[in-house]
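Lab meeting notes turned into a lecture example. A postdoc, R.K., suggested we walk through two folding results consecutively so the class can see how the record format repeats. The first protein's sequence and structure tokens come next.
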Amino acid sequence: MRLGVMQPYFFPYIGYWQLINAVDKYVIYDDVDYIKRGWINRNNVLINGEKRLISLRLNSASSNKHINEIEILDVHIYNRKILKTIENNYHKAPCFSKAYPLIESIINQSENNLAKFLEFEIRQVCDYLSIDTEIIVSSRLKKDNQLSGQDKILEICKVLGADEYLNAVGGQELYSNEDFAARGIKLNFLKMLDIHYKQFKNEFVPDLSMIDVLMFNQPQEIHHMLNEFHLC
């Protein structure tokens, strides 16, 4: 069984969804420390042809708290502003009429726990893209929560019976092939290939949120993109 584990993020880039699609079981890693100035509550979208940040406002966010201990601040007030920014900048995108209701339903949800908000997002986007990977939430697993780093990942692999662990390529320095092999687990890293698509009449702006991908591509086109990676 191939397993993937990652923190939840706010409409993460397409490589995140490639990982979910490539594994049999995917764990939303919600019981680890929140990373300030990371991508858990913010991402880049296309605004006037340029990469710009949109963010969920958080209440007393701290790297001393787990992701599932943080709440979104005044969810309806600030999230309406996010939706207005998306609508203003993408209303002429070819897939706006189909993708916007999905994004609206996610951002307008009443949940203010950050981890649960992002879990709902992940499940909804997976449904939209027909990704049928089993999704599990880390904090709901019975495991040794005193562990951290690689040891905690190995523990999750053991609990779920994984014989292969797949991680985004950015995590290569965090994990040891030898340590995984000693537990009978194959370790691989997913590296996204260069993905380009038409964005209005502008020069292509890479590394944007999944929102941008959804606005310019039909689900079947995105599903093809989900396989544009190699393992290393």
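The second example is placed directly after the first for contrast:
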Amino acid sequence: MNGLVVTLLRLLNGLLTLAFLPLLYSIYRKTQRRFYLYWGAGFLLYGVNIIIRTGLIYFNTSSLGAEIFAFMFSLSGLTFIITGIGDLIHRARTMFWASLSIPLFIIVLYYTTQSYLLGLLIASLPWVFTCISLLIIRVRYSSSLDLFVVGWAILTFSNVGSLFGVMELTYVELMAIFGKVVILFGVLYPRFTYLADDLRRFLIAGVPQQYLDQRGDKFVLYNSKSGKRSIEIKWIKEKIADNSLKDIRTIIISTYDLISPTDLMVNTNEDGNMYFVRMIQGGKSLLHDFGERIVVINDDMNDLDILFTDIINFTNERKITAQIILYNLSALIHTHGWKRVYTFLLSKISLLKASNVYLYSLYYPKTHELESEIAKFEKLADSVIEI
């Protein structure tokens, strides 16, 4: 009877482990964070190992070769999991090679020492190494990995206890299931994958509460039909607040101080997700980094071009999402001419399409003498919306 209970619990443990893959992959599609892909593959292989071992127990066909075959699935899964941990702090390659050295270490020691006790100690190393890695990241970066550390500590304790035969298999499986449930809650919490961005952000974002569900249009024109400043500011504030929930950086580009940072202050958390650029005569000609939240650039289309390129490159490198709100397009056209502004936007469309940057801009059609000129910008945009 006890053997049947263990078999059923191990089967449940394996199915729960396999269930991580579709859950993690769905989050990966929303966030494009490779961590979820690595851990999805890792738990798939880890789950296959458990299912194989369940079959060996059920059919009573256990052998050294079969056990080694199952254990290799487990090691491969842990390799992906450890690599995923490295991806959190942009050290995926380092952690990958570190994880590969573990099975190599096991093989070398096995053939050189033939020590059963040493073999058990080395066999438990992948779980211990993963747990310690999570703990170090938790302490060093003050990141939101509490559930991961607790869950993986439970997994480590249960696996080590099983290897040394000091725990009943029923309790081993129960603890493993509980530990994975704890880890699953940690995985489904949005904030933890942003710990690497906290190290070197050009924007200090608030705590994410939602995931970005879809990409949407990359270049959108907003027709301020009423022309009322209060309505426009309210619209921008709503954008900042909505972006803050999803950890999207909002970059306001204000031409000629038509809008100021004080106009847009919402609250402490949401302000931290806003980056403000003043485009005026006599401003700085180049922007080398994003260390400041409010900067000034010169009223020059070349400088605006450099700014866009820097934002796109930085977001691609950090795998983060940003929305640029240009306030406003009409002022740029009146100052620099429609041809120069149109050429600039045309050169950026393909880059925007391939990036995680969205461009939204207000404009005022009635202020333009030739409808044909403004119509060119409307055709260039993915969509035109009235506010």
